[in-house]
Amino acid sequence: MSDAKTPTLLDKEPLTDALIGEWQTIGFLLDELTPAQWSTPSPLPGWSVQDVVAHLIGTESMLAGIDPPVEEGDVPDSPHVHNPIGAFNERWIHGLREHTPEQILAHYRDITSRRADALRTMTQADFDAPSMTPVGPDSYGRFMRTRLFDCWFHEHDIRDAIGRPGDEGDVRAEYALAELLSGVPFAVAKKGRAPQGTSVTFALTGPLARNIHVAVEGRAALVDELPGPATTTLAMDSRLFTRLCGGRVSPTDRAGEVTITGHEELGIQIATNLAFTI
Fold first, then answer.
1. Which of 11, 74, 131, 209 pairs with 163 at a CA distance of 20 to 30 A?
2. Angle formed by the axes of helices 84-96 and 49-63, to 10°?
3. Sheet with strand 221-223: strands edge to edge
4. CA-based nearest residue to 154, from 250, 35, 65, 29
5. 125-177, pLDDT tens digit by residue?
6. At what angle do helices 238-245 and 140-162 cross, to 10 degrees?
């Protein structure tokens, strides 16, 4: 997704404010949960709402230099774990599963407060410094954008689980969408198998309304505009687009909410294979 030779440089202050704001928004949401809602299954296989929060705690704890509460060999095998990152996540999920919601919320508030303090003390040079990120070598700022992306997605996993929609069109959503879009060309060309010389437009309505264009010329890439009509256009609400890219919903079950014009078979192929996030 990212070329290490051209690191992604992001202004520290607005991104830090947005990430801290995302943590606060999740905290406010968690304050309102009933005991039953904490145990509600999330859109992620094998995880409850409480497990989603344990995952957020785990990742921020890792960035603070804190080890998981259990060793790798102490975590039972789970069918939803497919890679080393997933296995690492489960060490936090399993280790915190017996905690009460009150304990989880307190833990969440403590680690996000510590991480917020750490981010506030960083300089722009710190943000621009090289770092290993979930998408490969890039800047530390890019890593923090992936954190905002992850937290934003999990906020809405919680909201979707308990049926409480939230704002999906603010600055936090824009950062999350920017990170998401870095993987869309891969989804179109590799997973969706769009042939060379084709182009795709995602015509989004809803809170993140815009047209997103992908041209498959050599390596698939996002482009500002196309020279003519796209080979296929997929029109849908931005809320559905993010859930499809995140693998949160079944493309077959939601097929009636996607309008395809142009090359219909290619459009169906892409819509069915949009999921690409870890």
1. 209
2. 110
3. 221-223, 210-215, 199-205, 232-237, 259-262
4. 29
5. 999 999 999 999 999 999 999 999 999 999 999 999 999 999 999 999 999 99
6. 110
Find the length of the chain: 278
Cβ–Cβ < 8 Å for 257, 230:
no
Report how far residue 272's alpha carbon sits from residue 100's, in angstroms, rounded to the nearest whole number: 38
Measured distance CA(277)–CA(193) in Å, rounded: 17
Backbone phi, then psi, for 205, in 5-degree steps? -110, -175
The rounded distance, in Å, linking the Cα atoms of 44 and 49 is 9
What band does 1 get if pLDDT is binned at 50, 70 and 90? very low
Cβ atoms 234, 258 nearer than 8 A? yes
How far is the C-alpha of 98 from the C-alpha of 101, rounded, in Å?
Answer: 9
User: Reduced to 3 DSSP states, what percent helix, strand and coil does the chain have, rounded to the nearest 5?
Assistant: 55, 15, 35
- In angstroms, the Cα distances linking 49 to 11, 70, 95, 115, 268 are 32, 20, 15, 22, 32
One-letter amino acid for residue 207 of the chain? P
What is the pLDDT averaged over residues 236-242? 98
8 A C-beta contact, residue 248 and residue 235? no
Is there a contact between 138 and 2 (Cβ–Cβ < 8 Å)? yes
Tell me which long-range contacts 251-254 makes (C-beta under 8 A, separation of at least 24). Answer: 251/275
Helices and strands per DSSP (H, E), number in the chain: 11, 7
Structure tokens at 27: 């905290």
In the chain, the amino acid numbered 188 is V
List all residues 6 or more positions away from 169 whose beta carbon is below 8 Å from its beta carbon: 206, 207, 208, 238
Round to whole Å and give the CA distance between 147 and 16: 10
Q: What distance in Å separates the CA atoms of residue 68 and residue 58, rounded to the nearest whole number? A: 7
